[in-house]
Specification:
A hairpin with a 2-residue loop joins β10 and β11. By secondary structure, the protein is an alpha+beta fold. Helix content is 37%, strand content 24%. α1 packs parallel to α5 and α3 runs antiparallel to α4 (137-176). Its main location: membrane.
Length: 427
């Protein structure tokens, strides 16, 4: 059947053009991600780069399987032996790079220190290669080096193969004027005036332009507010309640104004409280919040010397609106939730700085590092209800948040703003 065929099958033709377009687009994305500054846009480009790479791998395996049961059409009559040999070498080379590039990229992702999940096009989970993520540091680094060297070599090989392939197409179509181009463009005639040839050139230019013009939609810098019926973001830990006289009348048992209390009062945080943070990445503001945190509050403006607050934060609950970015934040280079799942802020000293304004002086324990931290906040008490909000800034580098290349503050600023807003009820 192959001897009588004058062109590739329709399935082979469709796969050929799809893979060709994906490879060109992938090259442009790689250039942009490598040359551009690290930041949210480059991060998003690399996630798309991974998705397209896996897509090329799957399409190439399908193309190879189809090729094994549907051989290529014969070479043109009279084609020199050296050209036939060169053509076979180039075609084999393309299969090597179409399968090898995604595989080496897959190795890089699977052995990366920053354990990012792969979500194809932001939606379909794709696993790491088996065994590689669980390797010890030494062998894991070796595999990463193998993947990086292999990927770089295959990228350079891709440039060479593309030049040879496009040059051969031009030679056959314009100089030799044989029927080779119609193998992948049914009905094409030899010569430079063939419209299918110019259509292919226009498609090539369009893919290149798309690669440079494409801008990923910015991932939300923070998740949308939780709906009213959603579970509370805060899981309060009850503090000891103030002592009351069980024999008192209902009127006497009614809670007096806080200003009249000489002892600290226990408060329970209500639904809808938020604990968030803002970081700067290549000049762009990245906002997030912690979905799970607890608060033990024993406080009275009239007993600041005996007031105390303890806040525990589940670091794995960080959410910035981008699942892959969140996974990076909880990895060992940043929050390292595997070894340090919780951050704790404890304050036992309070200062009044103005009407309804205070400062909590305490200690933050983050990634196993304890540092002093002052938290200015405003407070308004109306009967049994208190509303409070505050903002402070901490230096992530002093807590080791950002290891290796991320320890530098060139891309991600050292200063991280932390804020909270809550409503609490007196117990």
């Amino acid at each position: 059947m192959a001897e009588n065929r004058t062109r590739y099958t329709t399935v082979a033709i469709v796969l050929h053009w799809l893979i060709a377009a994906a490879i060109i687009f992938q090259i442009i994305l790689g250039w942009r991600a490598e040359d551009g500054p690290k930041g949210p846009t480059t991060f998003a480009l690399m996630q798309l780069h991974k998705s397209i790479g896996i897509t090329i791998l799957l399409l190439s395996l399908a193309r190879l399987g189809w090729r094994l049961v549907n051989p290529a059409p014969p070479a043109p009559v009279g084609q020199p032996r050296w050209e036939q040999t060169a053509s076979k070498i180039v075609h084999i080379g393309f299969y090597v790079i179409m399968i090898g590039l995604p595989l080496t990229g897959w190795i890089l992702v699977s052995t990366s220190r920053t354990n990012l999940p792969t979500l194809l096009f932001g939606a379909i989970p794709w696993p790491h290669l088996p065994l590689l993520p669980e390797l010890a540091a030494g062998p894991k680094h070796l595999w990463h080096e193998i993947g990086e060297i292999g990927h770089n070599v295959l990228v350079k090989t891709t440039y060479l193969l593309l030049a040879l392939h496009l040059g051969a197409v031009a030679k056959h179509q314009i100089l030799d004027k044989d029927a080779v181009f119609q193998n992948m463009a049914p009905g094409a005639k030899p010569g430079w005036k063939e419209p299918r040839l110019w259509l292919a050139a226009a498609g090539f230019a369009a893919v290149v332009a798309a690669g440079y013009l494409y801008m990923p939609s910015a991932a939300p810098s923070a998740p949308p507010p939780a709906p009213a019926e959603a579970a509370p973001a805060v899981e309060p830990v009850a503090a000891p309640a103030a002592t009351t006289d069980p024999a008192a009348t209902p009127q006497a048992a009614a809670a007096p104004p806080v200003s009249a209390l000489k002892d600290p009062v226990a408060w329970t945080v209500q639904k809808g409280a938020t604990l968030g943070f803002t970081a700067t990445w290549s000049g762009a503001s990245i906002e997030g919040r912690f979905q799970r945190w607890t608060a033990e509050i024993l406080f009275s403006p009239e007993a600041l010397d005996r007031s105390e607050v303890t806040v525990g934060v589940d670091l794995a609950s960080t959410e910035t609106g981008d699942a892959q970015r969140d996974a990076s934040l909880t990895g060992e280079d940043f929050l390292d939730t595997a070894d340090h799942p919780k951050a704790v802020f404890t304050a036992t000293k309070f200062r009044k700085t103005g009407e309804g304004r205070y400062v909590a002086d305490g200690t933050l324990d983050l990634r196993g590092v304890k540092k002093p931290l002052s938290l200015p906040f405003s407070l308004k008490i109306d009967g049994d209800t208190a509303t409070a909000s505050g903002v402070t800034t901490l230096d992530r580098t002093t807590f080791g948040v950002g290891q290796g290349e991320w320890a530098s503050t060139d891309e991600i600023a050292a200063q991280v703003k932390v804020s909270f807003k809550l409503t609490a009820k007196r117990k």
